[in-house]
Amino acid sequence: MKKKIAFFDTKPYDKRSFDSTVGIEEYEIEYFETRLTERSMALTKGFDIVCAFVNDEITAPVIDQLYANGIRLIAMRCAGYNNVDVCHALDKIRIVRVPAYSPHAVAEHALALLMTLNRKIHRAHLRTRDSNFSIVGLVGMDMYGKTVGVIGAGKIGRIMVDILCGLGMDVLVYDKYQDKAWAESKGVRYTELSEIYEKAQVISLHCPLTDESHHLINKESIAQMRDGVMIINTSRGPLIDTKALIKGLKSGKIGAAGLDVYEEEADYFFEDYSEEIVTDDVLARLLTFNNVVVTSHQAFLTEEALANISGTTLKNINTFYAGEHGANEICGNCDAGSCVRHTKRTA
Hints:
By secondary structure, this protein is α/β, with parallel strands linked by helices. 33% of the residues lie in helices and 15% in strands. The chain has two domains: 3-101 and 302-330, 3-Layer(aba) Sandwich (Rossmann fold), CATH 3.40.50; 103-294, Rossmann fold (3-Layer(aba) Sandwich). The protein has helices at residues 12-19, 60-68, 86-89, 103-118, 121-129, 155-166, 180-186, 193-199, 219-224, 242-251, 281-286, 303-321, and strands spanning 3-7, 27-31, 49-52, 73-76, 94-96, 147-151, 170-174, 189-190, 202-205, 229-233, 254-259, 292-294, 329-330. Helix 7 (180-186) links the parallel strand 7 and strand 8 (189-190).
């Protein structure tokens, strides 16, 4: 009998991608548009596997209900898992993830945000659509020779470094785990956050969300930065204290911000609220700045990434039913990154 998968937070591109994955016909999938939360967890009754995404709320009560319903595997179709109580799941439910669906997709989106803000493409597009062909106020800068700080040198961060080096930028890198041979081969150097804050004209975030990195960009760190700094975040929303970011934008300390993620994005991202009022005052204020570009957590969204997500998720499920521990398993018996049962990085 086919194993049954409860697939949450489904979008049309998810269904197309998973339905076309070779081998998925061995499973029976029911696609739910709703996110997995304490309110929707009862839907998992009668299923064997849950497939979840970044904004599903897999709390201790959800895990307990899933376990009671006979769920023994949660297959995250994303890299991050800060929305999962992995410690509570230990010895109850195994959790797997997709650590690297397409690092190129995310790094390229970070570059798109950077270049859009620098050359004011978003503003120029709106003007010309209104038959306004003035270029007053659209002055950018050459990126060549400018200093950029890349915080987090995992798979995505390293590709971003390659891209920035290709632009001829002076690249400073911060990462807890330093690979000096790699840095030397790329002509970049590791440094401390303080030097990045002091010298970088552009700061791009590519690190996982941990207790240590939560609100990495805050009132104090912003105060250390160069006037007019550009901040790009395609990693996790809570890396930035959004209220501090807004104050920096209002004062002119921050010259521009490109955000594919937001602290409270689960309430809005991936859904259409164009006919409603945004009641999140912080998000609404952020959207008023003409030097801010917000995209709705779409950095991963390429055909290649979707294919990798569906393929790796299926492989993880097959590995579980083969009775093996896969390289993509998350263990709640250690802090993220120190267990031999899964890879060391989430960035």
